[in-house]
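Narrative of activities, Objective 1.

The group set out to show that a structural description can be obtained from nothing but a protein's sequence at a throughput compatible with the screening campaign. Below is one input-output pair from the validation batch, recorded exactly as produced.
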Amino acid sequence: MTIEERKRILRSRIIAAGALAAAAAGLAAWYIDRTTPSNKHMDPEHYFGISQDEAALVLDGELGEAKGRVIEGSYYLPYEAVAASINPSVFYEDTEDLLIVTLPEERREYSVASNGSSGGEAVRAEEEVFVSAPFLESVTNASFRTFDEPGRIVVSMQDSYPVETLMEDAPIRFRAGIKSPILKDGEAGTRLRVLDVDETGEASPDKVKKWTKVVTEDGFSGYVEDRFLGEPGLETIETGHPVGEYTRSFLDAPVNLCFHQTTDQASNAALTQSLEGVTGINVLAPTWLFLDGTAGEVASIASSDYVETAHKEGIKVWAVLNDFDGSIASSADTAAAMSSAAGRSAIVGSVMEELRACGADGLCLDIELVSESAAADFLELIREFSVECRKQGLTLSACNYVPTFTKYMNRAEQARVADYVIVMCYDEHTASSKEAGSVSSLPFVKNGITATAGQVPAGQVIAALPFFTRLWKISEDGSIEAESLGMSKAASRVEELGMSPGWDEETGQNYAETSDGGDTYKIWLEDSDSLQLKMEEVASADCAGAAFWKLGLESPGTWELIRSSLFRDAAEGSLYES
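Output recorded for this entry:
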């Protein structure tokens, strides 16, 4: 090998060794960079996403998108966030520019300041309404804390929450990872609220391995390495501002309610005759009260004699207020009647006076023409009725169509302030339907109860069932007519038409069909067979009871079937005891 060849080999080895050393150095630098925690701190204003005069809102450890305001050094929360997530009893009345608070036994009104100055309970700024944090704390069972630079409002709604202690100084990072920027430097001994571990130390399924999500007292929500945390426990919140309790006026037995469609004093006077053969019911709901004008007028045919007769039979009376038997005739009219504080006050005042005069035991709100845009006003009407009914010891219930038809109705809020929520498990097909069908199929009833119980405690749910059906006539040209029939009358019409009912498994009803010339008749019967299955759904869902539309449409034997279903022996595992 020549000298030149040896030199080339040596140079190659030197270059290779240099490349290897460079690669090793690079790998070492990469490893050090990857395993060295970041010391970069995130700008607090950037983290909270606020600008000048804004205040971040941290609710039970979660930073929301809604922004409050700092006005002349005072903190205010956006009304929409307050109503949706903090205190639904705080209601803004845009018609009269009022802030209304309905506590369990008290209703308060406050003017909304429009000049953007602080000092009041509520203020309008940039066409948005804001509620004072100190005022809100005084009417809410929650803790409110405010912090400056940057401005933020930290709200704790829960009575207690899990905490852990920082065992040594440790950074609280924006994300779970040592390269994530630091939100705050945590000090040893600090108790931090934890969001993904309970007070026993049990982790939630979505917890990031080796990291715990925490919230500082001043509203920073981030992550701490598990190795820095210890001493799991429970922190109890004392709000210092108790606002009263929503006491209930429940029956001490399952509710067996029958609606009684009364149209005049003559039908009131005939109650004794109407109750012949009726057994087991403990509530009558006569249709006595009607919205009768867009300014909140109410018409009434309430009768103290009727109440006295019912009480002698051991039956309570819940007077019905509806929005379709008076001069009110549309959802627009109903909305207008409820849309102002003055209108609602007129409705509540008139109805409560009628209830006092006749001695009724409760009120059933059957306000059915509620559009989505009027749903908030309807809820406020329920809250305002709740205050007055609670003062007088009256039972308050509210009727609703099945959730499939009215998803926008806040049934959870209804249940929070009222005693019972009634789900009307009928009118699956109505007289105006474009196709023939069942009034109340078994799946329709089951879904209505289940969906309602998903928002309302089962012990407050009353399932309303029909004593009626519809006989459908489909003409040769495809036009449809529907005749509403009670149970006995429907059986008679089936016989008259020579129809032969057979069991329909899909609807859980006896079904019959026949042709007469060019016309086709169809009927899904409500009878003891269908009612038995519906009552089993009521019992299996542990509902508070059942209601029926309406008195006089039932067939012989109906009430014994209902009684035996509602008042079962406890040994059968039912909620209901006789």
